[in-house]
UniProtKB/TrEMBL annotation:
Protein's UniProt name: Peptide methionine sulfoxide reductase MsrA
Matching HAMAP family: MsrA (MF_01401)
Active site feature: 28
Peptide methionine sulphoxide reductase MsrA domain ranges (all copies): 21-176
Entry superkingdom: Bacteria
Recorded GO MF terms: L-methionine:thioredoxin-disulfide S-oxidoreductase activity; peptide-methionine (S)-S-oxide reductase activity
Gene (UniProt): msrA
Amino acid sequence: MANHAIFDRPMDAPVPKGFEQAIFGMGCYWGVERLFWEQDGVWMTQVGFAGGTTENPSYREVCGGGTGHAEVVHIVYDPARISYEHLLKLFWENHDPTQGNRQGNDVGDQYRSVIMYYTDTQKAQAEASKTDYDNRLAVAGKKKITTEILPVDHFYPAQEIEHQQYLHKVPDGYCNMRGTGVEAAMPEGHELP
């Protein structure tokens, strides 16, 4: 496996002791990966596929439909520097979680909104944040959230190495990330004075 273009460590490096993992699907994974690699406390990002039935699919197979996979970003982070709740806030605010199997012009089940949890704590935090953000969207006159919250089944890194850290390699490349303009809850301990 190649080295991460920003962090310069092997993308298949073992998760350091005390660090945690997260998986988010927010539409096209290129912009999503950049959002998370820019965060202080994130140690590794990798684009790939999860939530489907085909083993180790190619990008072409996923885009062709029928694999059931979503485009996702796998994140390894230091919870002493960035909390899972903070990652959830970034998740909710940086895409539109009400669109079902699409994000803007990107249409298909691979673009669906999904949170995949590793632990019961992550599941509880994700579900609580979804309820809270759904209420915030309703107050703003927006539609209901369609985001799936699922246990991690299997993460398949994108085989096409050019897709990893794509917007670092192609800074003017395609990015369709658009939020709703509605703020998510501030994580506990991060309240503004």
